[in-house]
Write a structure and sequence with these properties.
By secondary structure, the protein is mainly α. It contains twelve helices and no strands. The protein has helices at residues 11-34, 51-58, 60-93, 99-105, 108-111, 114-127, 134-157, 162-170, 175-204, 207-212, 220-227, 234-266. It starts with 10 loop residues before the first helix and ends with a helix. 22% of the residues are buried.
Length: 267
C-alpha cells in the first residue's frame, strides 16, 4: 500500500502560519525591544542602549524579588517532584479503597480558580495561626504544582514495563534499590517534564502568592503587577529579556542533550 505524499503548503498557508507565530511571539519581541530603549517611558522607541541591563543589577528591590521568586520555584518544585513521584508510583502499583476518589481529587486544584485557592490557603493558615512567610508560599505552591506533576508522570508510567522491576528483584535487588536504579531512571523524562512545568507555574503565579506572602517579602510577579498600575520600570523589561534568553538557552541545551542520548541509544 503506497503512502500518501504530503501536499506542499500554498502561499496562503505560509501567510496563515506567519500570522499565527506573529500573534504568539510579538509580545515577547516587544519586551526584548523595549529593554534596549533609551526612553524609560517605553511609549516610543527612541534609540538603542544597554544601560538598563546594568541598572537591573543595581536595583536592590527588583533583584531581591527576583531571587526570592527563583528560590521559591526551586524549593517548591523539589518538594512537589518528590511528593508527586511517590504518589504516582504508589497509586499505580497498589489497589486500595477510595483510590478512584483520591485520583479524581487530584484534579480539583487544577480546575478550581486560583482566586479560590488563594483565599482558601489564607483562611487555612489564619485558622491554624500560622504567620505568613516564605514557607507559607512554598506550601501554597506545592499544593497546585503536585497535581500537574502527577498527571504528567501518569502518562509516562502507563507504559511502564513491570517485568523490568521483577527481573531486578529476581537478581537480588530489594524494593528500595529497584526504585532507585530501575523505576526512577525509567520515569526520569516524565519527572523532568513535570519539574519544568512546576517551575514555570511557580515563577508565573501572582494570585495565590498575593494571599499567602509574608510581610516584607514580594515575589517578582507581584512586584510587576504592582508596577502595572503606574509605570513598569525599564529594568523589568531587561530582567524579563534575560529570563527569556536563559529559558531559550536551557531549552536548546535540553534538546541537544536529548539528541545525543537518543543517538547513543540507537547505536
Amino acid at each position: 500500500m503506497k503512502r500518501k505524499q504530503k501536499k506542499p503548503l500554498g502561499p496562503l498557508s505560509y501567510v496563515y502560519l506567519a500570522l499565527v507565530y506573529l500573534f504568539l511571539y510579538l509580545p515577547i519581541f516587544m519586551v526584548i525591544a523595549y529593554s534596549f530603549n533609551t526612553n524609560d517611558n517605553n511609549l516610543v522607541f527612541e534609540g538603542f542602549t544597554l544601560k538598563w541591563y546594568g541598572e537591573m543589577f543595581r536595583d536592590d528591590s527588583l533583584m531581591a524579588s527576583f531571587w526570592l521568586t527563583i528560590k521559591l520555584a526551586l524549593v517548591s518544585t523539589i518538594i512537589s517532584v518528590v511528593l508527586g513521584t511517590l504518589a504516582t508510583i504508589g497509586m499505580h502499583r497498589y489497589e486500595f479503597k477510595l483510590k478512584k476518589t483520591l485520583d479524581g481529587m487530584l484534579y480539583i486544584p487544577i480546575v478550581i480558580p486560583e482566586l479560590v485557592i488563594g483565599i482558601a490557603s489564607l483562611a487555612t493558615f489564619t485558622f491554624m495561626n500560622i504567620s505568613m512567610s516564605f514557607w507559607t508560599l512554598v506550601i501554597a505552591h506545592v499544593t497546585f504544582c503536585v497535581p500537574f506533576i502527577v498527571i504528567t508522570l501518569r502518562a509516562r508510567i502507563a507504559d511502564f514495563d513491570k517485568s523490568i522491576e521483577e527481573a531486578a528483584m529476581d537478581l537480588g535487588a530489594n524494593q528500595l534499590h529497584t526504585l532507585k536504579r530501575v523505576t526512577i531512571p525509567m520515569l526520569m523524562p516524565g519527572i523532568i517534564s513535570g519539574a519544568l512545568l512546576s517551575i514555570t507555574l511557580s515563577l508565573d503565579d501572582v494570585i495565590i502568592s498575593y494571599f499567602v506572602t509574608g510581610a516584607g517579602e514580594m515575589t517578582l510577579p507581584i512586584k510587576v503587577y504592582g508596577m502595572a498600575r503606574g509605570k513598569i520600570a525599564t529594568e523589568v523589561y531587561a530582567l524579563s529579556s534575560s529570563m527569556i534568553l536563559c529559558t531559550i538557552l536551557g531549552y536548546l541545551v535540553f534538546i541537544f542533550a536529548s539528541g545525543k542520548r537518543n543517538k547513543k541509544t540507537v547505536s
